[in-house]
Design a protein that fits this description.
Length: 350
């Protein structure tokens, strides 16, 4: 702690308050007219901090997790809270240990045990919650651990022939619209599930149709589904739709009985379908297929990111204005390519 007299003639110091959830030091800036007054304020701050620490150090890890999750309920999304509820069940060896008795070794043993049979990404996600909760209540604690290193995920994408065989076989089924939207607009499950085909899809033919993405469907901790705004502004976007896909969506728009399935139902239906048509990818892999179409057309990276919702807010806004007002040639080329693929016509390269 550095006590000094500043240029204004008053005394000041920074008091260490421990670490925040990211392990960054927390400090309090204290000022006083005299050095003696400053020292008194410092001692008072420390005594308050120590009193709080004594109470919090008696908490068990599971108690501290429950408190931390309750604190986050008003700030985190329903999906995040639901994930937290699942994560807190992990590392059961730590649950009943009091924070004052928690050591690096005990944590490392729990992590090593959990690493058997689970992916490095899962371990890091679980520990991320535990660490945030623990260091929030045990402020000076900064454990040094060896976490399993994440491995590069396998890039999965359906084989074109098998995909198109499936697209022919599912015409008229409840899964046709979700699969078309994933393959040829790159939308995520939650974005697809909350679409209103009459209000969110704009049926302008001549390769001018598009879908407006502004919502996401997420699951709450009670397993109910809610529609909310996307996590980031980047996920709000406009994506062009080829005419041939637009025609097939229009049939479902006009069917009063049709309703797009929830994200879980999409995944369950997809599991059955991928085995039937021998397609080696998850539903998310259909987004990769859409990305491959953009890459084949040499669409600039910033527009690829904009269409997939993987961009900065400012870039997305610029892209949307271009799409609305200038009808970018890249969108026309993309929709032409998809129309040609689906109809079997020859596509003229640049």
């Amino acid at each position: 702690m550095n006590i000094k007299k500043n240029s204004r003639g008053t005394w000041e110091a920074f008091v260490f308050l421990g670490h925040d959830q990211q392990g960054v030091k927390r400090q309090k800036h204290i000022t006083a007219k005299t050095k003696g007054e400053l020292l008194e304020k410092i001692e008072k701050a420390k005594s308050v901090l120590n009193a709080d620490n004594v109470k919090e150090m008696e908490l068990t890890v599971i108690e501290c997790l429950d408190r931390y999750i309750d604190r986050r309920r008003d700030k985190a999304s329903p999906k995040t809270i639901r994930e937290y509820i699942g994560y807190k069940q992990k590392f059961p060896e730590l649950h009943n240990i009091k924070l004052k008795d928690l050591t690096d070794r005990r944590i490392q043993e729990a992590i090593d045990k959990a690493s058997v049979g689970h992916s490095p990404k899962s371990i890091q996600n679980w520990w991320g919650l535990f660490r945030s909760a623990i260091v929030y209540y045990r402020r000076e604690f900064n454990p040094r651990l060896e976490l399993p290193q994440k491995v590069k995920p396998r890039f999965e994408m359906p084989e074109r022939d098998k995909l198109f065989e499936m697209l022919e076989g599912i015409k008229g089924s409840v899964m046709e619209a979700p699969i078309l939207l994933a393959c040829f607009t790159g939308l995520r499950r939650g974005e697809i599930s909350c679409l209103n085909l009459a209000e969110d899809v704009f049926y302008e033919y001549g390769n001018k149709g598009y879908v407006k993405v502004s919502k996401d469907m997420v699951q709450c901790e009670d397993n109910s589904w809610v529609v909310k705004e996307p996590k980031t502004y980047a996920a709000n976007r406009i994506v062009p739709i080829p005419d041939i896909v637009l025609e097939r969506l229009e049939a479902y728009r006009d069917d009063p009985k049709y309703k797009i399935p929830t994200p879980n139902s999409i995944s369950k239906n997809w599991q059955r379908m991928r085995h039937k048509w021998d397609i080696d990818c998850s539903f998310h892999g259909l987004r990769h297929y859409f990305a491959s179409l953009m890459a084949a057309e040499n669409i600039p990276m910033k527009y690829q990111r904009g269409l997939l919702g993987h961009t900065t807010d400012s870039m997305t806004m610029r892209y949307q204005e271009y799409l609305k007002e200038q009808k970018l040639e890249v969108n026309e080329r993309l929709t032409e390519r998809i129309n040609a693929i689906l109809t079997g016509e020859k596509f003229t390269e640049n």
